[in-house]
Amino acid sequence: MQADVALIGAGVIGLLSAKELAEAGLRVVLLERGMAAREASWAGGGIVSPLYPWRYSDPVTALASWSQSAYVHLAQELREMTDIDPELRQKGLLMLGVEDEEDALAWARRHYRPVQTILRDEILRYEPAINIEVERGLWMPEVASIRNPRLGQALRQYAIQHPNITLLENTQVEEVQIQNDCIVGCRTDRGWVHTDKVVVSAGAWSQRVLSELGVNVPIQPVRGQMMVFKANPGLLNRTVLNGGKYLIPRADGRILVGSTLEYSDFIKETTADAAIALRHFANKLLPALQTLEPEHHWAGLRPGSPSGIPWIGALDNVKGLFINAGHFRNGLVLAPASCRLLADILCERTPIVDPLPYRPSVRQMHVDGDWS
């Protein structure tokens, strides 16, 4: 099989990268060892904003701001082309008990983002069913959420339909073949893909792929556990964030509760301690959930990276080897911009944002060890 680009990993980052490259006229092969969009892409909450965005660096803000605007068009396009609705809901984000409120407001002024202080009575007018123990919070009215499993389904269907994309699921990459320090193809358990460009977009598994090529990019798995309740529609309408955990409502009444942050290597099992903690948080913040049993409790592995800035671009070690990985807690948030930037780099177009902060050749030399 011949391709202009092979992508290893078909989560949302891989699928959306394939979409961008295919629309630029390139022939793309997506290689996925399991089913597309079934790992962290399926397991996350789908808030289209970093939690406490002012605590991140400007490179994360640049990608997040571009992506937040892009999601409106992307969700509509996918719904029209695939008949699968990703359920983008622009209902805003309520943040309770924010200790660094002044930092948040200063960040909002600097980046022209709508963030405002909101008092207890206003909070309860927005969400009368929640139980709050603080007198004020912050309100970000433009923040949306997306139903990430359905986003993954829509992107998968788009890939299947597009004539420039070949999606190979349940396909193991056995070797990335290199000759004279140049990519020449990928050997899989289903045959060869001949290409001179390979993009590693394998999420938490990206470092495993790259280490076999002698490349070290500090990406490690970080487990996150969540649960969901099936409640009546309208019980909660907006995402509510309190003390690092959150409730996310869906259009059908389901309410997601998340999430943990655990450095547990590649162990993806759920734990009783996390179940207790998530249930306690949910019951306290939204007392109506006390009468309900969780519908499901699951775990996923985020691709952790220092400071949460993804690596996007060419790896110097091998000509034709690229990466789009390391998005940590913000894979869904940053996906549209990250994948457009990757396509800009591969197609040698003017990039949507300055690519330097994400360039592997720069950042591998300046890892600060901050995994927050």
TrEMBL record:
<feature type="domain" description="FAD dependent oxidoreductase">
    <location>
        <begin position="4"/>
        <end position="344"/>
    </location>
</feature>
<keyword id="KW-0784">Thiamine biosynthesis</keyword>
<dbReference type="InterPro" id="IPR036188">
    <property type="entry name" value="FAD/NAD-bd_sf"/>
</dbReference>
<comment type="pathway">
    <text>Cofactor biosynthesis; thiamine diphosphate biosynthesis.</text>
</comment>
<dbReference type="InterPro" id="IPR012727">
    <property type="entry name" value="Gly_oxidase_ThiO"/>
</dbReference>
<protein>
    <submittedName>
        <fullName>D-amino acid oxidase</fullName>
    </submittedName>
</protein>
<dbReference type="Pfam" id="PF01266">
    <property type="entry name" value="DAO"/>
</dbReference>
<keyword id="KW-0560">Oxidoreductase</keyword>
<dbReference type="InterPro" id="IPR006076">
    <property type="entry name" value="FAD-dep_OxRdtase"/>
</dbReference>
